[in-house]
Design a protein that fits this description.
With 108 residues, this protein is of the alpha+beta class. It has one domain. It starts with 25 loop residues before the first helix and ends in a 5-residue tail after the last strand. 14% of the residues are buried. The structure holds zinc ion (ZN). Zinc ion binds next to loops.
């Protein structure tokens, strides 16, 4: 098959493509994005660490409790305070024990 120039040959389409360097930004790579321990950059001790996670009562937990109370389950309004999935996940550095970041339950 002869390439007439109307349609570029798909096998050679990228042969003259401009080489664009790929920049890996540590701020994006190690951004706190999980509720589980993850790799992150600690700004306090300037190291890349596997974080430890503690679950703390946050705004989302209180909203859940309030909703349960408003919809008739006043006696069960304390339950969200005992469920880790309804709390904020706070990431700590295992080296310096400083807070690295937070993944909130509802609003982040
Ligand atoms: Zn640290």
């Amino acid at each position: 098959m002869v390439n007439t120039g109307a349609m570029p040959d798909p096998h050679y389409r990228n042969i003259n493509a401009e080489m664009i360097p790929v920049v890996y930004d540590p701020a994006i790579l190690y951004k706190i994005s999980s509720r589980e321990p993850q790799l992150a950059h600690c700004q306090k001790c300037n190291k890349y660490v596997q974080t430890t996670v503690k679950y703390e009562i946050g705004t989302g937990t209180l909203i859940s409790s309030t909703c349960m109370a408003l919809f008739g389950a006043l006696a069960c309004a304390w339950i969200p305070c005992c469920i880790n999935d309804l709390k904020d996940a706070v990431h700590y550095c295992p080296v310096c024990k400083g807070m690295v970041g937070k993944k909130k339950f509802i609003v982040n």
